[in-house]
Every structure is written in C-alpha cells, then in structure tokens.
C-alpha cells in the first residue's frame, strides 16, 4: 500500500495562543485516535519550534551550519503523520479533520519508493 506524509503547517507568527492550543488538544487527541483506529497510522509527532532547528547545507564544497530554518516563510512545519493508505483520496478524507486547517494548512505528499 502507498505511504503518505501529512505535513502539518502552522503560522510562523501570530498563530493560536497557548490557551487556544490547550483547548485544541482534545481535538488533536481524537484525530490521532481516529487515525490509529482506521489502521492507516504508522507514525506521527509534533515538532519543536523552528528557532530550535539547525540547518546544514554544502555550497562550493564548504559545509554551512546555521541555527534556525533556512527560508523565511509565513508557515512553519509543526508536525507530521505518516500513514499507509490505499490511495490519496483516503488520506485527504482524514486530513480534512485535522484541527490546524482552520489556522494553518496540511500538505499531503506521497512517499517516494525507489525501485531497485
């Protein structure tokens, strides 16, 4: 069965307050439990804030290591779910129930499996 990542994006600035996030926590728990019960769930987790990130890249043979994300953006990756689903439509049906679509977005992307 194909695998998909549901990438959870949140506003880089001005998103939900800590109180709103606490209020939303039961909705996230319910979403995760529903996904697990569906048999699609493989893994998932929230990520720390972008200011805790470290970015590596090599340019002209030189390794560059910088604190934080590389790109300035209006949304930041906040977490993910990895699912095993028969098709994209199945994943999209579940993604519609993610609490963050009211203030952020969800990117659904298939996992690329290299053929040997």
Strand content: 35-45%
Helix/strand order, N-terminal first: EHEEEEHE
The major beta sheet can be summarized as: 4 strands, antiparallel
Radius of gyration equals 16 Å
What's the number of helices? 2
Gap from first CA to last CA: 17 Å
Instruction: Give the overall pLDDT as a whole number.
Output: 91
Please characterize this protein's 3D structure.
The chain has 116 residues and is of the alpha+beta class. It has a single domain, classed as Dimeric alpha+beta barrel (Alpha-Beta Plaits, 2-Layer Sandwich), CATH 3.30.70.1060. 25% of the residues lie in helices and 37% in strands. The chain contains 2 helices and 6 strands, in the order E-H-E-E-E-E-H-E. It has helices at residues 18-38, 88-95, and strands at residues 3-11, 41-46, 54-59, 62-67, 75-84, 105-110. The protein has a 4-stranded antiparallel beta sheet, covered by helices on one side. Strands 3-4 form a two-stranded antiparallel sheet. A hairpin with a 2-residue loop joins strand 3 and strand 4 (62-67). It is flat. It starts with a strand and ends in a 6-residue tail after the last strand. The relative contact order is 0.33.
Characteristic key phrases:
alpha+beta; Alpha-Beta Plaits; four-stranded antiparallel beta sheet; two-stranded antiparallel ribbon; 6 strands
């Amino acid at each position: 069965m194909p695998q998909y990542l549901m990438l959870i994006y949140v506003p880089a600035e001005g998103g939900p307050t800590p109180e709103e996030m606490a209020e939303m926590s039961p909705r996230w728990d319910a979403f995760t439990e529903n996904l697990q019960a569906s048999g699609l769930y493989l893994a998932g987790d929230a990520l720390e804030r972008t200011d805790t990130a470290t970015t590596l890249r090599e340019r002209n043979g030189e390794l560059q290591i910088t604190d934080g994300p590389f790109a300035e953006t209006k949304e930041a990756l906040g977490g993910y779910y990895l699912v095993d689903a028969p098709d994209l439509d199945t994943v999209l049906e579940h993604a519609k129930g993610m609490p963050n679509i009211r203030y952020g977005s969800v990117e659904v992307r298939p996992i690329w499996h290299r053929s040997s």
